[in-house]
Design brief:
Domain ChsH2 rubredoxin-like zinc ribbon (chain A): 193-225
Oligomer: heterodimer
Number of helices of chain A: 3
Distance between the termini of chain A: 82 Å
CATH topology of the domain at 5-120 and 208-222 in chain B: Peroxisomal Thiolase, Chain A, domain 1
Helix content of chain B: 25-40%
Pfam families (chain A): OB_ChsH2_C, zf-ChsH2
Largest sheet of chain B: 9 strands, mixed
Structural class of chain B: alpha/beta
Order of helices and strands of chain B: EHEHEHEHHHHEEEEHHEHHHHEE
InterPro entries (chain A): ChsH2_C (IPR002878), ChsH2_Znr (IPR022002), NA-bd_OB-fold (IPR012340), Thioester_dehydratase-like (IPR052513)
Largest interface: A-B, 42 and 37 residues
CATH architecture of the domain at 5-120 and 208-222 in chain B: 3-Layer(aba) Sandwich
Distance between the termini of chain B: 11 Å
Number of strands of chain B: 11
Domain ChsH2 C-terminal OB-fold (chain A): 89-152, 229-293
Protein name (chain A): DNA-binding protein
Order of helices and strands of chain A: HHEEEEEEEEHEEEEEEEE
Number of domains of chain A: 3
Strand order of the largest sheet of chain A: 6-5-4-7-8
Strand order of the largest sheet of chain B: 3-2-4-7-1-8-11-10-9
Strand content of chain A: 25-35%
Helix content of chain A: 10-25%
Number of strands of chain A: 16
Chain lengths: 318, 382
Amino acid sequence: MPSDATAAGTTAAGAAAVPEGEARSLVAGHVLEFPGGYTRTTGPVIGRFLTELRDGRIVGVRTAGGRTLVPPLEYDPDTGEAVTGEFAEVGPAGTVESWSWVSEPRPAHPLERPFAWALIRLDGADTALVHAVDAGDARAMRQGLRVRPRWKAARTGHITDIESFVPEVTRIVSPVRTEYRVRPGKALARFLDGVARGVFIGCRCGSCGKVYVPYRLSCPECGVAITEEVEVPDTGTITTFAINNLPDPRAPEVPFVSAYILLDGSDIPMIALVGGVPAHEVRQGMRVRAVWVPEEERTASMSNIKWFAPTGEPDAEL
Amino acid sequence: MGNRCAVIGVGQTHYTTKRRDVSIAGLVREAAARALEDAGLAWKDIDAVVIGKAPDLFEGVMMPEAYLADALGAAGKPMMRVHTAGSVGGSTALVGASLVQGGVHDRVLVVAFEKQSESNATWALSTHLPFSASLVVGAGGYFAPHIREYMRRSGAPEHIGTLVAVKDRLNALKNPYAHLRIPGISRQMVESTPMLWEPIRYLETCPSSDGACAMVLSSEKAVTGTPAWVLGTAMRSEPIFRAGRDTVNPQGGKDCAADVYRQAGITDPRREIDVAEVYVPFSWYEPMWLENLGFAAEGEGWKLTESGATALDGDIPWNASGGVLSSNPIGASGLIRFAEAALQVRGMAGEHQVDGARRALGHAYGGGAQFFAMWMVGSDKP
């Protein structure tokens, strides 16, 4: 086996490292390699297999019992009878029957990166062939995995004409990216003007009298244009909330509380982060006030509000 | 309500986390082919196709109706896409039904799907526009506060959500298409799972599924096989941000139910409906919707759940199929409710069949509990 020769070869430098006077622990490398390699005659069956490989095809041989042996043999291993001499093209795709992951390939291995040795039954074959599967990751390997040969460009008529098998294509990655230039509408721009100054701007519908925060140009209930602008305080009441325990890179650190906060004087709650209090001490009815980031850090964005924190007042009735 | 309309074919894929063996086109074809087979029809027998799914960002396929037209045999036929967020499966069935009721077509194929494994729903629902605060909470984070408010208002004990989580998963064990099939599911098992969005625990949440569902809808003269007759259809919507909007018991849901019951001649849903397939993606939505849909008085829905009335052997089984809590290919989830209602009154629900079911409700909701779609189907011609 080539791996034995390699193992011996890699220890060849050992002898020089042995200190004098310690003969019993002497180690010496030794290489046993027939110059130029053994020459083997293939016989008609293996020869046909290798010739077809050189042409980029995989063939098996039929037994008298009708089975197709891949790789082919000169005899039926079950009965000892000679095979029929009828060759059939198989594959090139096949199915992994069993596999073993090689996480640290050795120099004589067909691939330099981790791979699997697998028993692959090619389509149309009745026996399995041992070959390497370049699957990238052991988690990609499984019994039943469909694979296909990756051929070498220059083939010589050797089993290594197939560099390895690779899984069939079952998935593609489809990057989707759309770039926008987002401009706030008139209403949102007006609201953000206020947020930049540290105040909440809302509006009162002239028809139903409801106060909306953020500021908007029409009433979602009445459908009429809104013209009256009102400024509401940055204090309010938590009407309800969730404690979020699922981490997300774009979200605050968990656990965080997302709450509906009804600002004093507003008729519609806004969703905001609650902080400055342990998550499990947040209550429905709790009175809170916006905590604004320092003036020098403010922009025209809701990120001006760090969060809402309890005021310490008694809870409001809901 | 227009001309008579019947469900004559239902097809579903098995619902699972990842359907890696099929493309989106292959997935919808699988459900559609099963629906055609159930109806004893072929692609050529279909006059028009209506397709529904959740927002395009879920799979990153813009205008999937264009991509899927020939996969669904719609070449040379009318094809349209419906889009009402989570309720879309229900709305898709109703748009298809309206084409039959309006006398436009005799046979309409309705299909809905989601292949959630292609991306991540929370990502797709939380695009974080500029100028806003980054509060990525997903659907669970959105609905958890409304559940908390329901618990406060009704005074329901904490274990009610657990009861629903167990009941629906027990039903799923009888449904070969269900995604979550958890042998030995128990209250203890549910209560030992972590709070994802308090007060919602992991096992009180719907799974993330790949799957598709399809139905063949037919005019009276084109009926083949066993029909489920459409007795009433209704859709309602309301703005998500409106002062005074009741997010626990939305007016849109009440109005939608009243409309569909009026058409079907239902005055007491608890007594007159035999089985209901209702969109319950988080366990607490069962008691909430029991009230919203008039099966119980306000504040009393949890008592119905607690009494076992909504179990498979109760007097008004809810989600005999295992419901959204057991299978959730989002865009298809509403259509599955409608299809399961039809299977029940056709007597074809298999192991989760409710004996003698003659009238069934199919329900879906979506967005911030702001889109509603419902139908009543029955075994008797209206």
